[in-house]
Amino acid sequence: MTRADFSFLLAILVAAYPNAALAQSKPRLIHVLVALADNQHQGIIPVPAALGNGDDPAHNLYWGAAYGVRTFLRKSADWKEVFAAQNPYKGILQRSVFQHRTENVLLIADAYRGSEIQQAVTDFFRAAAGVHIHQGEPALCMVAGLLQCAPDYADLVVYAGHDGLMDFSLSPDFSARSGGSRQAIVLACASKVYFAALLRSSGAEPLLWTTGLMAPEAYTLEAAMQGWILKESKEQIRRRAAGAYAKYQKCSETAALRLFSAGW
Question: How many domains are there within the chain?
Protein backbone atom coordinates (compact mmCIF):
# COMPACT_ATOMS: atom_id res chain seq x y z
CA MET A 1 0.00 0.00 0.00
CA THR A 2 1.42 3.37 -0.99
CA ARG A 3 1.56 6.43 1.25
CA ALA A 4 -1.31 7.95 -0.77
CA ASP A 5 -3.40 4.79 -0.32
CA PHE A 6 -2.93 4.76 3.43
CA SER A 7 -3.54 8.51 3.69
CA PHE A 8 -6.84 8.10 1.93
CA LEU A 9 -7.92 5.25 4.20
CA LEU A 10 -6.87 7.32 7.19
CA ALA A 11 -8.98 10.21 5.94
CA ILE A 12 -11.95 7.84 5.77
CA LEU A 13 -11.38 6.83 9.38
CA VAL A 14 -11.05 10.42 10.54
CA ALA A 15 -14.33 11.33 8.85
CA ALA A 16 -16.14 8.29 10.16
CA TYR A 17 -14.56 8.30 13.62
CA PRO A 18 -13.36 11.66 14.94
CA ASN A 19 -11.76 9.95 17.95
CA ALA A 20 -8.10 10.74 17.23
CA ALA A 21 -6.67 7.68 18.99
CA LEU A 22 -8.74 5.38 16.78
CA ALA A 23 -8.32 7.28 13.54
CA GLN A 24 -4.58 7.88 13.69
CA SER A 25 -3.40 4.38 14.60
CA LYS A 26 -2.80 1.90 11.80
CA PRO A 27 -5.87 -0.33 11.44
CA ARG A 28 -5.77 -4.09 11.10
CA LEU A 29 -6.81 -4.74 7.52
CA ILE A 30 -9.03 -7.42 6.00
CA HIS A 31 -9.21 -7.82 2.21
CA VAL A 32 -12.17 -9.82 0.88
CA LEU A 33 -12.20 -10.93 -2.75
CA VAL A 34 -15.61 -12.07 -3.98
CA ALA A 35 -16.17 -13.82 -7.32
CA LEU A 36 -19.76 -12.97 -8.23
CA ALA A 37 -21.94 -16.03 -8.84
CA ASP A 38 -22.30 -16.59 -12.58
CA ASN A 39 -24.56 -19.22 -14.13
CA GLN A 40 -22.97 -18.78 -17.54
CA HIS A 41 -19.26 -18.73 -16.78
CA GLN A 42 -18.86 -20.89 -13.67
CA GLY A 43 -19.43 -24.55 -12.92
CA ILE A 44 -22.03 -23.82 -10.25
CA ILE A 45 -25.40 -25.40 -9.69
CA PRO A 46 -27.59 -22.84 -11.49
CA VAL A 47 -29.30 -20.28 -9.27
CA PRO A 48 -32.16 -17.93 -10.25
CA ALA A 49 -31.11 -15.69 -13.13
CA ALA A 50 -31.11 -12.48 -11.10
CA LEU A 51 -28.83 -14.02 -8.47
CA GLY A 52 -26.53 -15.67 -10.98
CA ASN A 53 -25.80 -12.71 -13.24
CA GLY A 54 -22.08 -12.17 -12.82
CA ASP A 55 -22.31 -8.69 -14.35
CA ASP A 56 -24.80 -7.37 -11.77
CA PRO A 57 -23.32 -6.96 -8.28
CA ALA A 58 -26.42 -5.22 -6.91
CA HIS A 59 -28.49 -8.42 -7.08
CA ASN A 60 -25.81 -11.09 -7.09
CA LEU A 61 -26.04 -14.03 -4.69
CA TYR A 62 -22.60 -13.38 -3.19
CA TRP A 63 -22.67 -9.57 -3.08
CA GLY A 64 -25.98 -7.69 -3.29
CA ALA A 65 -28.50 -10.37 -2.26
CA ALA A 66 -29.67 -10.68 1.36
CA TYR A 67 -26.70 -12.83 2.42
CA GLY A 68 -24.21 -11.31 -0.01
CA VAL A 69 -21.10 -9.70 1.42
CA ARG A 70 -21.98 -6.06 0.85
CA THR A 71 -25.65 -6.25 1.83
CA PHE A 72 -25.07 -8.40 4.90
CA LEU A 73 -22.28 -6.23 6.27
CA ARG A 74 -24.19 -3.02 5.58
CA LYS A 75 -26.97 -4.38 7.82
CA SER A 76 -24.58 -5.59 10.50
CA ALA A 77 -24.49 -3.79 13.84
CA ASP A 78 -20.70 -4.24 13.89
CA TRP A 79 -19.74 -2.71 10.55
CA LYS A 80 -20.24 0.64 8.85
CA GLU A 81 -19.72 1.18 5.13
CA VAL A 82 -17.54 4.27 4.73
CA PHE A 83 -16.65 4.18 1.04
CA ALA A 84 -17.86 2.61 -2.21
CA ALA A 85 -16.54 2.84 -5.76
CA GLN A 86 -17.60 1.43 -9.11
CA ASN A 87 -15.12 -0.30 -11.46
CA PRO A 88 -11.93 0.48 -9.48
CA TYR A 89 -9.97 -1.94 -11.68
CA LYS A 90 -10.54 -4.01 -14.76
CA GLY A 91 -12.57 -7.05 -13.73
CA ILE A 92 -13.69 -5.57 -10.40
CA LEU A 93 -17.19 -4.14 -10.64
CA GLN A 94 -17.48 -2.65 -7.18
CA ARG A 95 -15.34 -1.94 -4.11
CA SER A 96 -16.84 -1.41 -0.67
CA VAL A 97 -14.87 -0.31 2.41
CA PHE A 98 -16.14 -0.97 5.93
CA GLN A 99 -14.92 0.19 9.33
CA HIS A 100 -15.61 -1.91 12.41
CA ARG A 101 -17.70 0.15 14.81
CA THR A 102 -15.80 -0.67 17.99
CA GLU A 103 -12.40 -2.02 16.90
CA ASN A 104 -9.68 -0.46 14.75
CA VAL A 105 -10.26 -2.80 11.82
CA LEU A 106 -10.81 -1.83 8.19
CA LEU A 107 -12.35 -4.20 5.62
CA ILE A 108 -11.94 -3.77 1.86
CA ALA A 109 -14.27 -5.94 -0.23
CA ASP A 110 -13.99 -6.33 -4.01
CA ALA A 111 -16.71 -7.76 -6.25
CA TYR A 112 -15.14 -9.44 -9.29
CA ARG A 113 -17.17 -9.92 -12.45
CA GLY A 114 -18.31 -13.55 -12.55
CA SER A 115 -16.51 -14.24 -15.82
CA GLU A 116 -13.28 -12.99 -14.16
CA ILE A 117 -13.25 -15.72 -11.51
CA GLN A 118 -9.82 -16.95 -12.61
CA GLN A 119 -8.44 -13.46 -11.99
CA ALA A 120 -10.22 -13.30 -8.63
CA VAL A 121 -8.65 -16.56 -7.45
CA THR A 122 -5.24 -15.54 -8.79
CA ASP A 123 -5.49 -12.21 -6.99
CA PHE A 124 -6.45 -13.99 -3.78
CA PHE A 125 -3.29 -16.09 -3.82
CA ARG A 126 -1.14 -13.09 -4.71
CA ALA A 127 -2.70 -11.05 -1.90
CA ALA A 128 -2.10 -13.97 0.45
CA ALA A 129 1.56 -13.82 -0.56
CA GLY A 130 1.72 -10.06 -0.03
CA VAL A 131 2.26 -9.43 -3.75
CA HIS A 132 0.87 -6.20 -5.20
CA ILE A 133 -2.17 -7.40 -7.13
CA HIS A 134 -2.41 -4.80 -9.88
CA GLN A 135 1.25 -4.01 -10.44
CA GLY A 136 1.72 -2.31 -13.80
CA GLU A 137 -2.02 -1.99 -14.45
CA PRO A 138 -3.30 1.57 -14.96
CA ALA A 139 -5.18 2.61 -11.84
CA LEU A 140 -8.87 3.21 -12.45
CA CYS A 141 -9.48 3.96 -8.79
CA MET A 142 -8.66 7.65 -8.56
CA VAL A 143 -10.95 9.28 -6.01
CA ALA A 144 -10.65 12.94 -5.06
CA GLY A 145 -7.14 13.01 -6.48
CA LEU A 146 -5.91 10.09 -4.37
CA LEU A 147 -5.47 6.45 -5.26
CA GLN A 148 -7.72 4.11 -3.27
CA CYS A 149 -6.28 0.88 -4.63
CA ALA A 150 -5.65 -2.70 -3.63
CA PRO A 151 -3.78 -3.07 -0.33
CA ASP A 152 -0.45 -4.85 -0.11
CA TYR A 153 -0.35 -5.39 3.61
CA ALA A 154 -3.72 -7.00 4.49
CA ASP A 155 -3.48 -8.99 7.71
CA LEU A 156 -6.36 -11.29 6.72
CA VAL A 157 -7.14 -12.21 3.10
CA VAL A 158 -10.47 -13.84 2.22
CA TYR A 159 -11.80 -15.51 -0.92
CA ALA A 160 -15.56 -16.10 -1.19
CA GLY A 161 -17.32 -17.67 -4.13
CA HIS A 162 -17.29 -20.70 -6.39
CA ASP A 163 -14.24 -22.94 -6.09
CA GLY A 164 -12.77 -22.07 -9.46
CA LEU A 165 -9.91 -24.54 -8.97
CA MET A 166 -12.46 -27.27 -9.66
CA ASP A 167 -12.63 -25.87 -13.20
CA PHE A 168 -9.14 -24.57 -13.95
CA SER A 169 -5.56 -24.72 -12.68
CA LEU A 170 -3.29 -21.82 -11.77
CA SER A 171 0.42 -21.10 -11.51
CA PRO A 172 0.59 -17.72 -9.77
CA ASP A 173 3.91 -15.92 -9.57
CA PHE A 174 5.00 -15.54 -5.95
CA SER A 175 8.50 -14.27 -6.76
CA ALA A 176 7.69 -10.86 -5.26
CA ARG A 177 6.32 -12.40 -2.09
CA SER A 178 6.71 -10.05 0.84
CA GLY A 179 7.62 -10.90 4.38
CA GLY A 180 5.23 -10.65 7.27
CA SER A 181 2.49 -12.91 8.45
CA ARG A 182 -0.90 -13.14 6.78
CA GLN A 183 -3.85 -15.38 7.46
CA ALA A 184 -6.41 -16.62 4.96
CA ILE A 185 -10.03 -17.70 4.89
CA VAL A 186 -11.40 -19.57 1.87
CA LEU A 187 -15.19 -19.84 1.70
CA ALA A 188 -15.68 -22.10 -1.31
CA CYS A 189 -16.62 -25.73 -1.80
CA ALA A 190 -13.98 -28.22 -0.60
CA SER A 191 -11.44 -25.40 -0.46
CA LYS A 192 -8.99 -27.25 1.79
CA VAL A 193 -8.38 -29.86 -0.89
CA TYR A 194 -8.21 -27.48 -3.85
CA PHE A 195 -6.48 -24.45 -2.33
CA ALA A 196 -3.94 -26.09 -0.03
CA ALA A 197 -0.92 -26.45 -2.32
CA LEU A 198 -0.97 -22.89 -3.65
CA LEU A 199 -1.83 -21.39 -0.28
CA ARG A 200 1.18 -23.12 1.25
CA SER A 201 3.36 -21.72 -1.54
CA SER A 202 2.00 -18.24 -0.84
CA GLY A 203 3.32 -18.36 2.72
CA ALA A 204 -0.05 -17.50 4.24
CA GLU A 205 -1.54 -19.42 7.14
CA PRO A 206 -5.02 -20.96 6.70
CA LEU A 207 -7.41 -19.73 9.34
CA LEU A 208 -10.62 -21.29 8.04
CA TRP A 209 -11.59 -23.32 4.99
CA THR A 210 -13.94 -26.13 4.02
CA THR A 211 -14.03 -29.87 3.47
CA GLY A 212 -17.20 -30.20 1.37
CA LEU A 213 -19.92 -28.43 -0.55
CA MET A 214 -21.09 -25.19 1.03
CA ALA A 215 -22.85 -21.87 0.46
CA PRO A 216 -20.17 -19.12 0.65
CA GLU A 217 -22.47 -16.50 2.11
CA ALA A 218 -21.60 -13.61 4.39
CA TYR A 219 -22.95 -14.83 7.73
CA THR A 220 -20.09 -17.34 7.93
CA LEU A 221 -17.59 -14.67 6.99
CA GLU A 222 -18.90 -12.20 9.57
CA ALA A 223 -18.77 -14.78 12.35
CA ALA A 224 -15.22 -15.84 11.47
CA MET A 225 -14.01 -12.26 11.21
CA GLN A 226 -15.44 -11.42 14.61
CA GLY A 227 -13.44 -14.25 16.16
CA TRP A 228 -10.33 -13.05 14.34
CA ILE A 229 -10.88 -9.48 15.55
CA LEU A 230 -11.14 -10.77 19.13
CA LYS A 231 -7.93 -12.78 18.58
CA GLU A 232 -9.63 -16.08 19.37
CA SER A 233 -8.03 -19.45 18.65
CA LYS A 234 -8.51 -21.17 15.31
CA GLU A 235 -10.83 -23.71 16.95
CA GLN A 236 -12.95 -20.95 18.49
CA ILE A 237 -13.20 -19.28 15.08
CA ARG A 238 -14.12 -22.58 13.46
CA ARG A 239 -16.91 -23.06 16.00
CA ARG A 240 -18.16 -19.52 15.47
CA ALA A 241 -18.31 -20.10 11.72
CA ALA A 242 -20.04 -23.46 12.13
CA GLY A 243 -22.59 -21.96 14.51
CA ALA A 244 -23.50 -19.24 12.03
CA TYR A 245 -23.66 -21.71 9.15
CA ALA A 246 -25.90 -24.08 11.10
CA LYS A 247 -28.23 -21.21 12.04
CA TYR A 248 -28.72 -19.87 8.53
CA GLN A 249 -28.59 -23.18 6.67
CA LYS A 250 -30.84 -24.84 9.26
CA CYS A 251 -28.55 -27.81 9.68
CA SER A 252 -27.06 -29.36 12.80
CA GLU A 253 -23.99 -27.76 14.32
CA THR A 254 -22.31 -31.17 14.23
CA ALA A 255 -22.72 -31.27 10.46
CA ALA A 256 -21.51 -27.69 10.15
CA LEU A 257 -18.42 -28.44 12.25
CA ARG A 258 -17.52 -31.26 9.88
CA LEU A 259 -17.73 -28.81 7.00
CA PHE A 260 -15.14 -26.38 8.37
CA SER A 261 -11.47 -26.91 9.08
CA ALA A 262 -8.93 -24.65 10.76
CA GLY A 263 -5.23 -24.70 9.97
CA TRP A 264 -3.34 -27.25 7.89
Answer: 1
